[in-house]
Amino acid sequence: MSSHNDNTIDKEAPSSDTVTLSAGHSSRSSLKIWLDGEFVDHEKAAISVFDHGLLYGDGCFEGIRIYNNRIFKLRTHLERMFRSAELLRLQSPYTIDEIESACREAVAVNQVSNGYIRLVFTRGVGGLGLNPFLCEKPTVFIIADSIQLYPAEMYETGLRVVMAERRRFPINCLDPSIKSLNYLNNIMAKVEAIDQGVLEAIMLNSDGHISEGTGDNIFIIKDKSIYTPSTEAGILHGITRQFVMEELAPAIGITVEEKMMYPQHILEADEVFLTGTACEIIGVTHLDDQEIGTGQVGQVTKALEAEFRKRVEKNAPED
Ligand SMILES: Cc1ncc(COP(=O)(O)O)c(C=O)c1O
């Protein structure tokens, strides 16, 4: 069953998008995974059922894009990865430089010139108790493949989102700035979106402020100014978010202000867009069936998308 033209999805049957996404990974039979220092055929790349990454979601990860043989913001992603690990008191068995070389090797071995890297540290193999320090050593793996979060046509028509009932973890419970393997908070909000026939949900923090999407940051445009929730709202400090704030918005002559916002700010906005490594930049046209601005992807969003494309497709920064 295909998705509706108005970009909602069919709840009864998988949409074409769900089919694409459920395939999820490349069908390339030659895909090789970097696993604990070695390349392994993807069918054979396996980790133990006693790995705490599986048993408890104990670990952290990064998603990184490759554009024209350049790994976009690789070093910034690796720094965030090592910060996440440190905050989880998980000691990588490899240095940051070794992980960087391994990512480059995984891309080269799989001949990915445009695609996506998933880098994962799990706590490693342990017993059935929670104690992370009884685990042998972290498992590390790198998948160099591809990703498509939303169907291509939604970048033209815009994305419909809902406001999730489920709130984002508070910073003092599990800080959303840690990109941990424990994504159930986001997944349950994503399920709310899918149940309502759309592909993304916006999450509020426990104080009712807008935090972020389930896998992306949010930006709001009002009267030619751009706003995004402050990091105190409890968000992943997105690398695409930072790129928009520091490079793309200034390039089109607009500054971005971080502030605490409420759902009303979305409904009164001229434009809204989401950013993330996987979704890149995508305009949002509706929140809970209410139109945002003109109900179409706005001009500022389009200008930022164009600037983004220009900068990533030619000599994407790797720092
Ligand atoms: C919860 C969440 N917020 C925001 C983002 C966007 O971050 P980035 O631009 O670094 O990919 C992601 C994706 O990594 C995410 O999972």
Plain-language structure description:
- With 319 residues, the chain is of the alpha+beta class.
- The chain folds into two domains: 31-145, 2-Layer Sandwich (D-amino Acid Aminotransferase, Chain A, domain 1); 154-313, D-amino Acid Aminotransferase, Chain A, domain 2 (Alpha-Beta Barrel), CATH 3.20.10.
- Helix content is 28%, strand content 25%.
- Strands 7, 8, 9, 10, 11, 12, 13, 14 and 15 form a nine-stranded mixed sheet that branches. The protein has a six-stranded antiparallel sheet with strand order 2-1-6-5-3-4.
- A hairpin with a 2-residue loop joins strand 3 (59-67) and strand 4.
- The longest helix has 15 residues, at 299-313.
- It is globular and about 55 Å long.
- It starts with 15 loop residues before the first helix and ends in a 6-residue tail after the last helix.
- The site of pyridoxal-5'-phosphate (PLP) has 14 residues, from helix 7 and strand 13.
Please sum up the structure shown.
This protein has 319 residues and is an alpha+beta fold.
